[in-house]
Amino acid sequence: SESRMRTLFYALISLLMVRSFSAVAVVNPSVIGALPSGLGESSGIEPAANGQYWSHNDGYGDNKLYCLNASGTLVRTLTVSNAVNYDWEDLTHDANHSYMYIGDFGNNTFDRTNLRIYRIPYPSTVSGGTVTASTINFSYPDQHQFPASWMNFDAEAFFHWNGNLYIFSKPDGNAIGYTKLYRVPDQPGSYVATLIDSFYT
User: Beta 189-192 vs 134-139: how paired, if at all?
Assistant: First the structure.
């Protein structure tokens, strides 16, 4: 239900805040590998099978998904033949691993009228190096100016749950502001997103 979704949203934010203000742990990172040269600006990342990961380039990049192993070595490349990487930001999938979703909703100048999410068959079910996407087009119900004077229509992350995609906007300032949560169906089509709630970060 929507109230359950709202509760989950607040629980997630609260957990992140608690973790942010908890005691600082000393971490000694070590390099385990380097990303392949074709993945110049890795943006979204999504776990795959056998300790591997799918990723993609950020805005104005290519229309490819890259499968990497845990050391960053390229295992496979999948081209989304009918998609344009206007500003890809994140990846997610449904619970059954039937589909993967590519969030083409980066909107740094708050003037996009072509916000979209590409839906492809989950990559492990695809043979060969090319896949065709269907498209979920959407707009924000509270954006009425292009570009918007209020900087809150740029999204960087989303997840799939119970037949819908939930999109998080970036805060409306450099470091603090309102993060908004929107919902769109996971089926191809054109939609006005539903604004679920917002949280001041």
Answer: parallel
- Amino acid found at 198: S
Q: β-strands 90-93, 130-131: how paired? A: unpaired
Nearest C-alpha neighbor of 75 from the set 102, 35, 120, 131: 35
pLDDT tens for each residue of 142-170: 988 888 877 789 999 999 999 999 999 98
Quote the CA–CA distance of 100 and 95 in Å, as a whole number: 10
DSSP strands (E only) in the chain:
42-47, 53-57, 64-68, 74-80, 90-93, 99-104, 116-121, 130-131, 134-139, 155-161, 164-169, 178-185, 189-192, 194-200
pLDDT tens for each residue of 48-105: 878 899 999 998 889 999 999 988 999 999 999 999 999 999 999 999 999 999 999 9
Place of tokens 């470091």: 175
